[in-house]
Amino acid sequence: MSDQTPALRLDNIVKTFPGVRALDGVSFEVMPGECHALLGENGAGKSTLMKVIAGMYQPDSGRLYIEEKETVLPSPLAAKSKGVVLIHQELSLAEEMTAAENIFLGELPTKSFGRVDWKTLFARAGAILKKLNCDFGPEVKVSRLSIAKKQMVEIARALTVDAKAVIFDEPTASLTDAEKVVLFDIINDLKAQGVGIVYISHRMDEIFTISDRISVLRDGAYRGTLETAETNEDEVTQLMIGRSLDYSRNTLHHDLGGVTLDVRGLSCGKLYQDVSFKVRAGEVVGFYGLVGAGRTEIAETLFGLRTPSAGEILLDGESVTVSSPADAIERGISLVPESRKEQGLVLGMSCRDNITLPQIGDLTTGPFVSNGSEVAIYDIYRDRLEIKAPSWRSMVGNLSGGNQQKIVIGKWLAMKPKLLIVDEPTRGIDVGSKSEIHNLIRELARSGYAVIVISSEMPEVLHVSDRIVAMYQGRVMREFTSDEVTEDTLVQAISGIRAQEAA
Length: 503
What we know:
InterPro entries: AAA+_ATPase (IPR003593), ABC_carbohydrate_import_ATPase (IPR050107), ABC_transporter-like_ATP-bd (IPR003439), ABC_transporter-like_CS (IPR017871), P-loop_NTPase (IPR027417). This protein is α/β, with parallel strands linked by helices and 503 residues long. The chain contains 18 helices and 22 strands. The longest helix is centred in the middle third of the chain and has 16 residues, at 177-192.
C-alpha cells in the first residue's frame, strides 16, 4: 500500500476558532481501496478535519492533496466535483423533496429550457437505491421515510459521482443490523473500485470489522496510526484517551431498597405482550434485545407516551395510570430518550435552560423566571455530573455528545425522580465519555435510584446491570442476574430460544 499514490492526503492542517485550536498540525492520508478509520473522543477534532476535507471549512494553514495534486476546496460542491464526498452523521436532507431530488441535489438532469428531466432523474436514482437494497422508490418524499431510510438516501448521494474518497461520519447510528450489513457491502464494493474510505465511528466492533488502518486524534493533534489487524481495543483506547478502560461485567453488589416499579402483564397491541418485571430502589435493570423487540415501546408506555392495552403498573406498591409525560413526571418517572438531539434537548438553548426546562413553572414568579434559581440548579448538576461546558450560557448544540447526554440526565435528576429510564445511554458517544456515563449510572443506583437501561450493546448491558431482561418480538424471554448471565445464554434469549429449549 505504501508505494501507491494516496487517494487523499492532508499535510500539517491547522484550524482555529475563537479561543480554540481545533486542529493542531494534523497530517492524514487514505489510500485507494483502503478503509481508514479515524478515531478520537468527542471534541478531538474529527468533525473539523472532515469539514476541511469536504470544503466546508478552509484551513488556516497546511495543504490538501487529491491523488498527490495540491487542491483547494472552497465549497462542498467543489469537493464533490473533485470526487470527495462527506456523508454526514447529522442528516442534511430537504424533507419536502423526493429521495431522487435529494440524491442529485445541485446536479439535477435537465431538458430544454432548464426543465428537470424527471424520467432520467428517477431512473438514475432508482438504480442507486436498488444497489443499496432499499425498499422504497425514488419518488417518495423524504419526510415520509424513517431515520434509517433517510440515512440510506444520504449514502446514495456518494454513489452519484466518480468518487476518489468517501467519508462516512457515524453512518450506522440510525441503521438496523440488516442495514449495517448492506452498508458494509457497499463500502467493500467501493474499496474494490479503488475508492478510499474514511470511516468515523465510536463503535469498536465496527472499526475492527471494516477498517484496514486506524488513525487517532486527541485534543486536535494526530496521535498515531495502527494497522487494524495488528492492534486491539485496549491499545486503540489508550491512544485515544491516554488510559485503559474497565470493560468488565458488573459484579458490584450493594443493598437494595424496596420495589419501586412493578409491571404486571403489560401489553400494547402488537408492539409487546404480557410483559412483567420489577425494579428495586438502588438497582439497574438492563433491557436487551434486537431492534423491534419492544424495549423502547415499554419505556414510552411507562413515560405516558403510549397507552397500554392490558396490564398494570405499580409504583411503590400503588397501582397507577400514567396517561401523559406530565403525569409520569408528577409520579416520579423520568425518561432519557434514545435520540437526545431530537427528543431530549433544545439545541439552540443554553445548558442552564435545558436543565431547568421541565420545572420552569416552579421557578417563575408572575411573568418572570428566577435566573438565580436556574443557575443554582445548573451549578449543582454541572458539578455532580462533571459537565464540561464553558459556562451555563453555552449553547447545548455546541457541546460534545457525552456532555449533551449529561445535560439530559441532569435535567431529569433535577426533578428528583423515583425511576430513571435511560434509552441507549451512550449512542454516538466516544469511549471515554461512555465510561463516564456507565460510572454515573452505577453511582445513581448506589444513591438509591431505580434505573432501567435500554441498550443495543451487549458489553454495556453486562457492565452496568444488576439484572437483565432479554426480549424477543415483544415478549420477555428470560431474566438474568449479573452473576448467572453469559453471552451465549443472552444471545439465545434475544433470538427467541427459551431456557428449556437451550438446555
